[in-house]
Structure formats: C-alpha cells, structure tokens
Amino acid sequence: MAGAVTQYVGAALAVELFGRLGSPAVAWLRLSWSALALVAWRRPRWRATTRRQRIDLACFGAALGLMNLSFYLAIARLPLGTAVAIEFSGPISVAALGSRRPRDLVAVALAGCGVVLLADVEWAGNAAGVGFALASAAMWAGYIVWGRRVSAAGASAGLDGLARSTVFAAVVVAPVGLSGLVGHGPPDRAFAAALLACAAVALCSNVVPYALDQVVLARVPAARFALLSTLLPATATLVGAVVLGQRPSTAEAIGVAAVVAALAVRGSAASA
User: Fold this and answer.
1) Closest by alpha carbon to 134, among 199, 82, 89?
2) Which residues, 6 or more positions from 167, have their beta carbon under 8 angstroms from its beta carbon?
3) In this structure, are residues 224 and 265 in contact, taking their beta carbons and an 8 Å threshold?
4) CA angle 129, 59, 225 (to 5 degrees)
C-alpha cells in the first residue's frame, strides 16, 4: 500500500509535467533519475555471473522501461484510474496462469470483474490511449515474471538487479525520450524546474514502489504478488479523486469492492 500511494502520487505529478516536456520525455527522465538514485544507493556489481542472469536482467529492464513509457503515453490520453484499470489485465493474467485451486480462480474472476468496472472507458473514444494501456499491461506481466527471477536469490540481490535493470531500461527508452525533448524551446528556469520535478516523480513512482516490490517478490510467488497488486486500481482511484479531482462513478465504486473481495478470497485461500 505504501508503494501504491507513492506510485500514483508520482503519476499525478507526472501528468502536470506532460504539457512542458511531453510524456515520452517525462518517462525517460523518470527512469534516468531512478537509475541514478538506485545505483548510488545499491552500488551493484555490474557483471552477471551466468548467461541466464544476463538475459533475465535485460528482459526485466526492457519490460520496466517499456511499461513506464507506454503507461505515460496512456495517461496522457486517458484518466489515471481508467488507464490503471486497463493495465491490470497484465497482472491478472499472471495470477490466472499461476493458479492451481478453484478459490484462486474465483478470486481472479472477482478481480477481473472489478477491473472491467473500474475501467469505465469508451473503447471507441480513444483507441490510442487504450492501446498504450494494453501495451503497458503486457509489459507489467513481464515485469512480474522477470522481477521474480531477478529477486530469486533474495531481497538484496533483487534490489541490486533492479538497479542494473533500471539503467538498461533508461537506455532502451532514451531514443524516444530524447526525441520528445526536441521542439520544447530553449532551456529556461521553468524547464530546469520541470527536470527537478521529474526527480520527485522518479522517487515516488520508481525508487520507492519498485524497491518495495523486490522485497515482496523475494518472499511470495509471482501469482500471489500479481493478485495482491490488484489493490492498486483502488489506490489510483483514491489518488485521482484527491489529487486530480476525478470522482469515481457508481460502477467504479462497485469495481473497488470487487477487487477487495478478490483479495479477501485469495487471502483466505492462501492461509487455508
């Protein structure tokens, strides 16, 4: 929950920066600031010991970078809660594929219904926004799967892997991000302030929640982590209401209740 709150407060701040820098540039700056912070904190070893580790780190970094980019492209076109809800088709798919018991499937079904209700989007209204949200969903699924592999050796190894992978993610997104900065006029005080604001976005949206993700992923299976993450649409709806003034509709409120019910079913199944 701590990671969820900071993540979407950072997203709300990022939306305010899109008009000055553009969403691709903000996504790249977010990753770049995050990489600097994580490397300074963890001081990771840069040489992976096996070929499998190198592949896992590269895939994790690519998924992380493309997830950030496509999500920002989505929230530049869709409301925050809507984009997050659509994005959740990714982790829900991971939960479904990792399920083994009927109660798990019931929980996934409830969570899926909650996401559909929370989305509340006209598919014909903004096809590009929906497409970017779906792309972010696919990358989020990859983030969970490869994040679990990177953190398999424990939380400390997972955090070191996150630092290395975030550097790779920034490199992957750099061509799009740098091109997004072109055409925004000569640097001035407002531009410098926007760059510093991106550092705050990175801290809130990457460093804190993703570091907490690695701590959790080292302790729980990927499927359970994916289902626990369904708390995020409810958090995004709350942040959207408080920070952006986006009041949830009746359907969205029912969707939040369905997600909470899914977590209750899954939690009781896990403890059985």
Assistant:
1) 89
2) 35, 39, 61
3) no
4) 75
Q: Is 29 exposed, middle or buried (0-12, 13-18, 19+ CB in 10 A)?
A: buried
Q: What is the pTM of this model?
A: 0.82
User: How much is the pLDDT for 185?
Assistant: 60
Report pLDDT digits (tens) over 165-217: 999 999 999 999 888 777 666 666 777 888 889 999 998 988 888 788 778 87
The Cα 71–Cα 211 span in angstroms is 19
Residue 227's domain comprises 2-271
Q: Can you give the pLDDT at residue 271?
A: 47
Q: How many domains does the chain have?
A: 1
What percentage of the chain carries pLDDT values higher than 90? 19
